[in-house]
Amino acid sequence: MKRLKFLVIDEADDLLNGRGVDDKTESVFEVIDLLPKKRQTFLYSATMNISDQILEKIGVTSPKKIYIGRDLSTVSTLSQKYVFISEHAKDCYLIYLLRLQEVLDAESNGEDIDKEEIMKPKKKMRTSDNDRYKGNKKDQFKEMMLTKRERQKESKVFTTVIVFAKTIRDTETIYLMCQYLGISTVRLHSRMDSKERKFSMAQFREGETRVLVASDVASRGLDIPHVGLVINYNMPTGPEIYIHRVGRTARAGRNGRAISLMTKYDVEGLHRVEDKLSLKMEELELEEKSVLRHMRETSQARALALAEIEKNNDDIENGIKSGKKRVIDIDAST
After folding, report:
1. What is the pTM (predicted TM-score) of this model?
2. What is the pLDDT of residues 270-327, one digit of tens each?
3. Which domains, and CATH codes, for the chain?
4. Cα dist. 312→127, 197, 198 in Å?
5. For 138, phi and psi rounded to 5 degrees?
6. Which residues contact 6 (CB under 8 A, 6 or more apart)?
7. Residue 185's closest CA among 167, 166, 165?
């Protein structure tokens, strides 16, 4: 490291401000302390909010700042809307939007489908597949979707969706709910091991599954070029987080959409985002009666998901006592 001349840090504000995955900030500072003082340092991020004290701590004085586009902005090809809902109906709206996207894609492709069959509530819960990374299993909608090679050959519409949740518990709960309700889904958060993460990302990138449920660990640093829709299950607490989340879509000049599920408790957060971005989001109006008919099935799926999470927590606790498993903080934020 003595010969190092250039230090490059991507997502610099997250790493240096202590908001990174597993909070590796102190380790980053320890590594930087070992580097030559005479070097060039390059810090990159879509949002840059690093104090002079931190810059001085890493040996950066009189930095030159280069902005590409307006700071704290989103691209013009991104459609941003919100759905104003009651907290108890949030799961209904999420499942409705995910199923509706499947229908819209199939209709765009001219496929002969039974829209009502896809959209109607399911009377029977599927068995969840929480260890899905061990093998790809087909879901009830898989037959109407073409393989990646066929989609490329025939230019079929296939919209991939990222659902962002606030905590690991929310991420796991939504993931399991979707599994119970027959929606092909993978998840991503910081407490998954590398094998699980790689499998989830491979399935999503290759188009083997259309929905990725993720904590904010997926809002930075991932290059997934063809995401068509971002859904904020939880409204982000600040504009910076919002920008990074919706920045997963509408990349490289493509069109994209972002929909935020917003309750009365999120109004202030929405206004902060609008003020920072100098925009006024439109409300997405949906037929409430069609959405709320999913209430019973989503409530059942949530109950099953939470029960499975608690069982897994008990298994983990027993494993810790026997020295076989590691601690997983399912209430962590990433």
Report:
1. 0.75
2. 999 999 888 999 999 999 999 999 999 999 999 999 999 998 887 655 554 555 444 4
3. 6-57 (no CATH), 78-313 (3.40.50.300)
4. 15, 18, 21
5. -75, 150
6. 39, 40, 41, 42
7. 165
